[in-house]
Amino acid sequence: MRWLQTIPSLLLALPLVATAPALASTSAERTIVAVGHGNTEIEIPAFARKYNVSCSLCHAPAPRLNAFGEAFAANGFEFAPGEVPRDTVATGDPLLRLMEHLPLAMRLDLYAVAVADAAPSEATTDLQTPWAIKLLSGGQIADRLSYYLYFFMSERGEVAGLEDAYLQYTDIAGSGVSVLAGQFQVSDPLFKRELRLEYEDYAAYRVRVGDARADLTYDRGAMLLWSPWSDGDLALMVVNGRGLDESGPTRQYDADDGKSLAARYSQGLGPLRVGGFGYWGRESADGFDSDVVIWGPDLTWSPRMDLEFNVQYLRRTDDNPFYLPAGADATVDAGFAELIWMPQGPTGRWAVSGLYNLVRADRPVFSVRLGEAALLEEYESLTGSVSWLYRRNVRVIGEVNWLMEPDRARFVVGAMTGF
């Protein structure tokens, strides 16, 4: 159930109540039950207040989740599915579970960035203060039915609107199967972009080819989650395949009849977790079709509680991404490797991470939407990042990034906070 815990805006889970990290060994943890894949989001400060716990109970460090946080998210923001409701209004109606207070949280990210050998269109230094402001909410609407959403009040200086927004029903009829419907990231069952420690993104999930709209970030659709046996996780998805485009003149989101299908299975093998992912979709434009196929393996190795190594590889093939009469296919190989080390252990204040991104094609056909001015043939970057917790819900970051093509360096200092 790792991926669930990788839910958006983890940072929200950062509590406002200071409780000793030793809470991870309390009776609450001993009785927690993980069911299916649960939600795809994670706790917000309102949940920390609800249970009177520290964010260190679930994070190591924020926004990363530990096993307890993963189980809590999988249970739909509860220690156990079907537990006695907390913070609800006594309406006397058995068919109504009404929260006494609407759970709300804020996330604020701000950075200062310096670029060596900046392009003519770039500034050498930039105060990105703020870079992102999110308003988040999530909780139970009814027994086993939860919701999650966040509104981007400011993303890179603009009001971006809703990104994650969905309902999830956990453990249908005791089967261990959970279903969610709404907006989510197709890559959520893999490595959650919202939970990374680095300012640099996972470029492989952002790849778009030619004029095709499909990528592995946000989309609209439904997802089924199931753990068929011990430490095995399955996710099945059907999505529009067009991202979060607004509806057109027909009042429809999708512009063609095709839907995209995706599946991911992963299995824990001691300190290893090995997974495989597949995606198939068809897009149509200007009277032409283009099939999109994405597949690849992933691996997580956690030999110790303070060390984690993640690897992702994806091959993408589009058979006519520019929608031309003659057709011209394109193949893009993409992947990343990430190393995370917590020198003082999972509840310590320091974290060190390294991230290597590589995306490559045989000609300029793709974009990763990270500031490039034209279609790319290759994107390669190496990042080193250091994080320090000023408080459990305030993380200070320093980062150095080297982009190989064009050859330049980027330096970042900043802070991420949830409250």
Quick description:
The chain is mainly beta and 419 residues long. Helix content is 6%, strand content 45%. It has a single domain (2-418), classed as Porin (Beta Barrel), CATH 2.40.160.
CATH class identity: Mainly Beta
With strands numbered from the N-terminus, the spatial order across the biggest sheet is 1-2-3-4-5-7-8-9-10-11-12-13-14-16-17-18
Strand content: over 45%
Poorly predicted runs of 5 or more residues: 1-43
Average residue-wise pLDDT: 86
Number of helices: 4
Query: How would you sum up the major sheet?
Result: 16 strands, antiparallel, barrel
Number of domains: 1
The helicity comes to under 10%
**Shape assignment:** globular
Terminal Cα span: 26 Å
- In CATH, the architecture is Beta Barrel
Give a count of the beta strands, DSSP E runs of length 2 or more: 18
Topology as a string of helices (H) and strands (E): HHHHEEEEEEEEEEEEEEEEEE
Cα-atom Rg, whole angstroms?
21 Å
Superfamily at the CATH H level? Porin
CATH topology-level name: Porin
Structural class: mainly beta
Secondary structure topology:
Blueprint: H1 2-5, H2 27-31, H3 45-51, H4 67-74, E1 105-115, E2 125-142, E3 145-155, E4 161-169, E5 178-185, E6 208-209, E7 218-226, E8 232-239, E9 260-269, E10 272-285, E11 288-304, E12 307-318, E13 330-341, E14 350-361, E15 366-367, E16 378-391, E17 394-403, E18 408-418
Antiparallel strand pairs: 1-2, 1-18, 2-3, 3-4, 4-5, 5-7, 6-15, 7-8, 8-9, 9-10, 10-11, 11-12, 12-13, 13-14, 14-16, 16-17, 17-18
